[in-house]
Amino acid sequence: MELPTEVTRELDELARRFGPPLSIVATIDDSFKDPIWKRDRYGEVCMVVRRPSGRILLSIKTFYPRGAHRLPTGGIRHGEGVYDALVRETHEETGLSTAVRRFLARISYAPLSSPAAPPPFADESRLFDRYGVRVPAFLISPWLQPKSVAHTLLDHTSVLKTILEKFCRDPQGQIPYLSARVANANSLSQVFDALQTASVRTDAPLAPVVTPAAGIRRLAAGEAAPPSSAFQQLMQGVKEHCLSQGVPPEQL
Questions:
Q1: Measured between alpha carbons, how far is 142 from 199 in angstroms, rounded to an integer?
Q2: Residue 24 in this model has a pLDDT that exceeds 70
Q3: Under a CB-based contact definition with an 8 Å cutoff, are residues 31 and 115 in contact?
Q4: Residue 97: what are its φ and ψ, rounded to 5°?
Q5: Cβ neighbours for 113, distance < 8 A, ≥ 6 positions apart
Q6: Per-residue pLDDT tens for 141-181?
């Protein structure tokens, strides 16, 4: 199964951190659609949670056959890292505080009718090796040149990447690993490095003076604002409805 570069990189990193997993290709009946064909995910995580007693945590749902228990699982959302999905789904499914110890297995599926065909999720995963529609980001700072344009590709995690670079480096200069998306994001620092001014700008226009409209006054300390006519009409309508439903007037 061909995976996007960022997913492959994260799986390799997880293998280094938690041990190499078993690699398994499982054939399944063609009628088995849930959850591997769901469009809200590109993969699944399966959690083997060992309790302090040594027992393994299993789950059951109301629509399962009586006595049918299984390991808890959950979907990997589009744009979400494998490790992030594992941590999120473990907490959502169990509510427990857990620690990841081992990367046990990496499983892909092939239909019985065509076991040599690309497994489910293969086509879906290829959708995540590119960004969507590009929109402009506006950076406002006295340290940026006026009317300048940067061509650095940014996304939402660029803000996180910038914070990590500026405030969270360890003694060796490395930043913490949060997810593959954060690790691969461009930092806002790259924009500032390219477009920074020699000194702080002072040419920002002054904020306009706002004159209160006629008839508006500042409330005194502790004074409540009078309700608007629209609010009064709304409350009158609520009162009339309650009375029509038999609510005693003294309770209104």
A1: 9
A2: yes
A3: no
A4: -85, 120
A5: 30
A6: 888 888 888 888 888 889 999 999 989 988 888 888 887 77
Split at pLDDT 50, 70, 90, the class of 130 is low
The residues facing 43 across adjacent strands are 76
**CB-based contact 157:185 (threshold 8 Å):** yes
**For residue 35, cis peptide bond before it (omega within 30 degrees of 0):** yes
Strand partners, 46: 73
Instruction: Tell me how far apart the alpha carbons of residues 39 and 236 are, in angstroms, rounded to a whole number.
Output: 48
Give the bridge partners for 94, in sequence order.
none
**Rounded CA gap, 154 and 137, in Å?**
8
Indicate the average pLDDT of the chain.
81
Q: Contact at 8 Å (CB) between 105 and 116? A: no
Q: What is the mean pLDDT of residues 90-119?
A: 82
Give residue limits of the domains in the chain: 5-128, 134-202
State the SS3 of 23-58.
Answer: EEEEEECCCCCCCCCCCCCCEEEECCCECCCCCECC
The whole-angstrom separation of Cα 83 and Cα 89 is 10
